[in-house]
Amino acid sequence: MTEAQNRLDRQWDAVPAERQAYYCRVYQRELQKANATLDDAAELRVLRQLIDAYRQQALVPVGTRWAIVPDHIQQAAREQREMSHDEPLIQPVRSGTPRLLGLLLLPMAGLVILFLVTTFSGGDDASAVALDATPSITATVTPEISPTPTPLALEEADRVIRDGELLSKDYYPVLLQVYPPDAMRSRVFVVQERLIETADWRFDANPDVASWVSGLIVRPVLGLPFSEENTAFMESLQTGTRFELQMNTGAVLTFLYEDRQEVVRQTSAIFRQDTPGLVLVLIGEYAPDGLLTDERTVVTARYEASNEIERLEAGELSANVPMGTSAEIAEGVFLRVLDASVDSGSLILDVDLSTQATILLVADLSWSLVDGANTPIRLASHTLPAEIPSHSTISGNMLFDLPGQIDSAVLQVESPSSEPVAFALSIRQPEPALTVADLVIQVEAITLTGDQLEVTARLFNPLGNPVSLVGQSIRLDTNGIPTIPLTNDLPPELASGASYSLHLSFPYTGQSDARLFLLEREYALHMP
To answer: How do residues 17-38 score in pLDDT, each as one tens digit?
Structure first.
C-alpha cells in the first residue's frame, strides 16, 4: 500500500464514526442519482465529478444539499486552525444551503479520494493519473446559490447556537432559511434554543437570531426579534414562500407558507403540537406607552411530506408507515391506522382491515406497541371480529393500557407469512375540560356616572376549546341586596384564543361598599 493510501487512511480514521456514516450515505446517494451503483465506469465518473466540484467550487454536503464554503474558511481548514471570532464577517453571505459544516470539507475530499484510490487502483501509481485527470463531462452537482440580505455571517453560527440554552442534545434546529416565491433571494436566521418556564420568553435581540421554544419538535415555534427589517419581512411573506429548517443532524425540513394573522399575546393555540408545521412569531415589540404590544404577528407554515423521503434516504427515519396510510401486513391483507387517542386511561387505536382474495383469521396476527423509549404497552382488548371474509373491509378499535403521558408510539403487526410492518402513531391528547373558571378575567375600570356604576372587564379564553357563557350570573350586592346589571353585553360563547371587552352598568344609590359577582369570581368594591 502506498504512503498516500496510508495517509488517507489515517485522515479517514480521524473522522468521527457518525460523520463517516453520513459521508457514506451522501456518496451512495450520488451514485444512485447517476444510476452508477452497479457500473464501475459510471462510479468512477461520479467520483471524478465530486472531486472536480470540490476543487473548483469547494462544494461540501450539508444535509441533503450541497453548499459552497468561503475561501478563508477553506484556508483555515487546510491549516487546521479554528476560526477567530475577530476575523471580518463575509458581506454578503452567499447562501442557498447552510454552511455550518464548512470545516468538514477536507474529510469529505479525503472520502472521495479514498474511494477512488482503494477501489480503482491496483497498488501502483495509476491512481495519481486518475486524480489529476480532467473529467470529460460537466459535474452534475449544481446547488442553488443566491445572495442573502442576512448580515450575520454563517461561520459565526456555531457560537450563536452555543449561546442558547442547549437543552435538547439529540435533535434540535440550528438554521432557518426562508425563500420567497421567486426564490431569487433568501433570508437566513441562526436558531437558538430557549426554555420558557413561565410567561417570560427570553431571546437574543439580534434580528438575525431566531429563538426556538425548547421541546416543540412536531410544530416548532420560532420567535423573531422585533425590528423594522423583521417586521417588513413578516409582512412580505405570502403564498409560495418556502421555509427550510435545518436540524443539528443535517436533516432539512421543508415547510410552505400557510397563513399570517395578528393574535393577542396570551394566545396559547400557537404552541399546540397536534399537527406537523412551523410557526414564526414576531416578539419583543413595545407600544408607545412602554409596554409590550397586546398583539403579535404570527405566520404559520405546513409541513411537506416529501421531507420524510429525504430523511429516509439520509437514514434518519425507519420506514414506519404513517397514520392514514394503508400497508400490506400479510398477503392480500391491508391495515390502516385511522386515529390514536387517549381516553379514560386507555390508548385507543381506530383501525380498519381490508382483505382481497384472502380470508383473515385475526388471531393469526401478532400486535405489539412501544412508546418513544421502546417500552412495550400491553394490548387490553379489541373489537375486531375473529374472522374477516375475503373482499371485505372491517373497522374496529384496539385498546392498550396507558402507562402515563405519551405523545407518540410505534405499532408493529406481524403475520406468520410475512415480515413485521411498523406504523408510526401520533397520539391525540384529550381536550382539557375548560369551564368559566378557567377564563382569564381582568377588571379594567370602575367608574361612577351619576346614578350608575360602570364596570369594564376584559375576558380571555387561553385554552383549546370554546366556553359557553349562556346563563352565567352577574350581579352587584350592596348591603346584602343583589342587583342585576342594567346593561349586559356578555356574548353567548367565547372562542378558543379569543378576548372580549365586557361592559356592565348597575344602578348606584351612593353606597360606599359593594361586592361584584362576575363569572364565578367575587370582587370587593369600595367607592370613596
So the answer is: 667 777 777 787 777 667 666 6
Q: What pLDDT, on a 0 to 100 scale, did the predictor assign at position 299? A: 93
Q: Which of 499, 501, 476 has the alpha carbon at shortest distance from 486?
A: 476
Quick count: other Cβ atoms within 10 Å of Cβ 335?
Answer: 20
Contacts (Cβ under 8 Å, ≥6 apart) of 453? 446, 447, 476, 505, 506, 507, 508, 514, 527
Q: Which domains does the chain have, with CATH numbers?
A: 3-132 (no CATH), 148-313 (2.40.260.10), 327-426 (2.60.40.10), 436-526 (2.60.40.1150)
Residues 6+ apart with CB under 8 A from 335: 326, 327, 329, 351, 352, 353, 354, 413, 421, 423
pLDDT higher at 85 or 422: 422
Q: What number of CA atoms fall less than 13 Å from residue 426's CA on the CB side?
A: 11
Give the whole-angstrom CA distance, residue 347 versus residue 400: 5
Q: What's the pLDDT score for residue 167? A: 64
What is the distance between the alpha carbons of residues 172 and 170, in angstroms, rounded to a whole number?
7
Query: What sign has the CA pseudo-torsion 252, 253, 254, 257?
Result: negative
Beta bridge partner(s), residue 187: 178
**Of 133 and 80, which is predicted with more confidence?**
80
pTM over 0.90: no
Q: Give the list of residues 6+ apart from residue 349 with CB closer than 8 angstroms, or none.
A: 337, 339, 340, 397, 398, 400, 411, 425
Cβ atoms < 10 Å from Cβ of 181: 12
Distance CA(424)–CA(472), nearest Å, equals 44
- pLDDT tens string 66-81: 666 777 777 777 777 7
What pLDDT is attached to residue 319? 62
Mean pLDDT of all residues in the chain? 76
Buried b (16+ CB within 10 A) or exposed e, 473-485: ebebbbeeeeeeb
What is the tally of helices (H) and strands (E) in the chain?
9, 33
Element (H, E) at 116: helix 105-120
Contact between residue 298 and residue 224 where contact means Cβ atoms under 8 Å apart: no
Higher pLDDT, 302 or 118: 302
